[in-house]
Task: structure prediction
Amino acid sequence: MRALRLLEWKSEPVLVEVDDPIPGPGQVVVRIGGSGACHSDLHLMREFESGLLPWGPPFTLGHENAGWVHALGTGVTGLELGQAVAVYGPWGCGACSRCQLGMENYCERPDLAPAPMGGGGLGRDGGMADLMLVPSARLLVPLPDGLEPVTAAPLTDAGLTPYHAVRRSWTKLPPGSTAVVIGVGGLGHLAVQILKATTSARVVAVDTREEARALAGNEGADLAVAPDDDVAAVIRDATGGKGADVVLDFVGADATIALGAAVSRFLADVTVVGIAGGTFPFNFFSLPYEVSVQTTYWGSRPELVEVLDLAARGLLRPTVTTFPLDEAVHAYHLMESGSVLGRQVVVPSMGS
Result:
């Protein structure tokens, strides 16, 4: 079969022929219907190096995956051949207290996991291939009726990650509140939809690109602004001088973290999701009182079930551009240039 593999750090991935995976006991092979291209993959190709993570190349890219059950290992129950499924992305040990709650993104025994602090496409072979081996049936979520794999694939990260970030701040988003989304990319455009579907908050979107701001408006943002010199004042004016109750930063650079701090209200949550590596100088007076600043990583399996339900009901609609597998590297280049909105999804069956 074909697979898009990262052979070493700081390199372009290559499309190669590899053996079809064969499931062992408890394992499942999925025929991929869609695999999302994520901006974090670019960090793997451009910036990461040996020793930074507990795993490394070579491996097949693609950590946002959905498709159909292709083969079942012995002992697997509850799944049928041909059944449409999404792959839960972070692979933990499956046994610690966090994993038992479905929170494998926060596994406490990563040394026992298939890919410590990773998963398929992150240390283990992912879904930018015709077939993908999933090490346990617990990592698969059946798709609700009417939801196709090409739509479900980006929801496993680009939908799940912002959903988790929004969900943990639900209590701060009643009627009259304001949420700010910084970066209307693959995750940010879904964050706008999640906020509108699950809260009563006013939503302000911030992005450098005019077309991204237009997309945010189309997805329900009440205000979409460019991050120019007076953007903090504009946001404060829009909130009657109070500031934002929740800030979701999908960039994570120095400037965007500083903007989140500048527009936050007393008691606000500032959640940094993007991994651009920015920092923020902290002291007693650098933030309004009782502002919480945190990072998040992915979301839980139960939250993925909720995300897929929202999508099946038409409340989440990822903007998707599809590419055949032999154009996957081009899809990454387009993402890097910022010239495609929403999410790029590789569909191995296209053109085959």
Observations:
- The first strand starts at residue 2 and ends at 6.
- The chain has two domains: 2-157+299-346, 169-295.
